[in-house]
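Deliverable D5.2: sample structural annotation.
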Amino acid sequence: MSWNSCYAFSLVSSPKTTNSFRCTPFLNRVPVSFLNAVESNGNDGGELISARADDVQSIQALFLRQCDADGLMTKQNLEAVPELADLLKEGDLLPDELSDIWNAAPKFPCDGAEEKIDVDSFTQIYRDIDDLFEDEDMEEDGTALTSAGGESESSAVSAEVINGDDEAAALRVRDEKELETVFKDICDTAGLLSREALMGWNEVKLLFDDNLLGRNEFDELFDQTIKSPGTSDQLDVEGFLSFNVALDDLFEFDDEDEERAAAVVEEVSQVKPVITETDLPAGVLFSQIADNDFLVGMEELKRWGELQDMIAEGDLMPIELQNIFANVQKADGAPEKVNEDGFYILHDAIFDLFENDNEDEQAEAEDPMAASLEAKSNLLNMLADLQRREGQSGLECSDAVQARIQEAAMLVEASSNNLLAQKDIQPADVAGSWDLLYTSSGMFRYNKGLTGLAGSVPNAEFGGLNQELIADKYLFEVKYVERIAVKSAPENSFDAKVNGDWELKKSVSLLTGAPTVIMSIEPEKVEYGPTSTRADHWKSVRSMNLLDISYLDDDLRIMRGNTSTDTIFILQRSK
């Protein structure tokens, strides 16, 4: 619960908040309908307004009721806001904390000596104060909403101040300044941004390419963002900042996401299982896949695991199966299904397509381990050759090369040496030091690495990435070390480090419905040289935050994007 939801803001009329507003530049930016609403509600003195940190209009309404006649506010005015005064009095908000937040906020140019803020700075201060508080002890029945008088209706809601407030405020200012610079580059000559122009922003295009953001999600975010006054589909800089806040919120994994995943697991558990046994007699197989009317159609054939493997491996084309099925006589009253006699004919026709006298195939079937080792060796040789020709991790390789690596990786994933097919993977199985051999991630390639520093430091390039996974009874920590190589001056090369937490989650693939193991990583800090900053402000590190483990053995790990299986990361244990 944020601090502003613990207070119902009491808006009492005062000489500074009368029905007449001066026509200042700030007030001219506010829609007339909005000012009328503020004025009409300002006289009764008893109305309450609750402003969330993401509710820009409510924050503006609060500011209009507390600012002076010029639409500005001094620090003394800010401290006199009843709710802030109460927080200061109770010690929930310290004077030094408020001073730091005030000092970090941009000031409005004034002729006088006293510093003043406008509505934009007030909004920033409001959000910074909101960030100081977190939810605590919400298990009691009901939620106590503290009124303007300070009384609690059921149970007191407490909040604790998180560490690093000064740094968070400074980083937030830096992020907003960077976004304002970006806005200037992509907006039109009138300082406005259309839906199409925003879709063309590289950050959004990258999220689209990696399937991390859908068009429907984008449209919903854009439609919910407050538009520039006087337009219906254009964003000003404030709207652009609000859009980015909402965009960041999409990537916060919360309880609702876990509930949806649980619902998918429940739905999948109710589906009839695939019959994975091979070489079953036709009669036994028919009894296991037939529907309640003892008939089999194309839908029921999807539960015949051996048949689906033939299709997946390219031994049987879907059109061949459809042609065979079309030539089998259908059951009475069911023109799309066959009875048991028809299934016998279908079964024999499928296997008549294959000849079993191929010695190479027999030898491979007798020694699956040899086939697994050969597939793995081919993949590693391909990656070693790629590194010799094009540098680290294949960041510059062509689409044709990527397609060949994808094909080789799929053979390794399907091999009998895959631990995922042998047991439940535990943290100890993946703990240790790993080097990145290759990735096809669009985000990783766009940022030229995990941190993006290789793309921002002059004459620098990505020099490799090591991932160390630490796992014991109480600690699950991840440490990345990314080498930033400076080509023109190797002595200036340096390491960037990212620390965080990790865990393994059992889930169900949103694409295939099959069980999967997800490696979930939450970066906490990015360090390079004397600089140390929170990782949640560093968007590029998200490229490895949520990946499915698709292959694992003693020294090789393959991971794929949770929502984009074409995104692949291949890592090898450090020697």
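Annotation notes: The radius of gyration is 31 Å. Residues 29 and 427 are 55 Å apart (CA to CA).
The annotation will be released with the project's public dataset once the embargo ends.
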